[in-house]
Design goal:
By secondary structure, this protein is α+β, with helices and mostly antiparallel strands. It is built from 2 helices and 2 strands.
């Protein structure tokens, strides 16, 4: 697979996302689309798990809608 961690030791992808979030200077709303489950506990409510073998589904899109609308 493709390694997306920029850290010397690739712990959880959640740490890399956390670093990115803390570097943002403007207000934002976000969702995490991923085919793994290696996120930090506080990020889990924003994760949409996408099956790498299937791709984005209608169910995934509904989950994204709920995240962005705060439902």
């Amino acid at each position: 697979g493709v390694q997306t961690c920029a850290l010397p030791i690739c712990w959880a992808r959640g740490y890399e996302i956390e670093k990115w979030i803390h570097n943002q200077t403007e207000d934002y709303n976000y969702a995490i689309l991923d085919d793994t489950y290696d996120m930090l506990d506080y990020q889990k409510s924003r994760v949409v798990h996408v099956d790498g073998a299937i791709g984005l589904t209608t169910r995934n899109i509904e989950e994204l809608r709920k995240i962005f609308l705060g439902e």
